């Protein structure tokens, strides 16, 4: 294992707020760079993570697309891609949980805690590295959609806003994954995330209209944070989407902002507190 530490001056760090902030930024970047180096040693896993959503798009688009009627009789890929962009924000959380849980169970996290470094650097570094990985994965999927005929119809600013909402959801979900990884050590952490990822992904408006489900199940799907982001992306890209007259259907963009902020407000401090409390 390779561990990065600061030079000898890191042992006696200055106490001024500005210098502490600069050292905190340096600590976070050190931990982010550590994750990059680990990924460089297993490029196949990273590449597979980028291509797996592409496979899902091709499978649903070509195998099931002809059987699904799109609102307004639009093209199926126009409808599918914004939902898949949102669903991709859930994919890959297993990798986050595995890495965090592995570091905690092997004592690596305890070693970091014994060093003169910012207490939040480990979890923040992990989150930043995974966000950069998610950006590349989303770019790959957007490129795939463009090749398949998908496009946005309301200008670049609206498209950037949609991408921003997608990454905001990813940022929030990463904190959920980090918290699970810190709380559950061992293989059960991966199983717990896999159990959560697929129901969250499919129990949504990504592939089907919630009104076609039993009433109680449709209500759960409508309130799913993934449904909110998918609906907001379709609206901003001006792609066809499921129509509805209720408050949820009319406020997709608002919910796509509220849900990630609420999840982050809960799980970011929980993750930092959990990290600080390990092995105490």
Automatic annotation (TrEMBL):
The chain crosses the membrane at residues 46-68, 80-102, 123-152, 158-182, 189-208, 247-270. One of its GO terms (molecular function) is ABC-type transporter activity. Pfam families: ABC2_membrane. It is found in: Cell membrane; Membrane. Keywords: Cell membrane, Membrane, Transmembrane, Transmembrane helix, Transport. It is a multi-pass membrane protein. InterPro entries: ABC2_TM (IPR013525), ABC2_TM_bact-type (IPR047817), ABC_2_transport (IPR000412), Nod_factor_ABC_transporter (IPR051784). Residues 44-278 form the ABC transmembrane type-2 domain. GO terms for cellular component: ATP-binding cassette (ABC) transporter complex. Its main location: membrane. Belongs to the ABC-2 integral membrane protein family. This is Transport permease protein. It comes from Paenibacillus hemerocallicola.
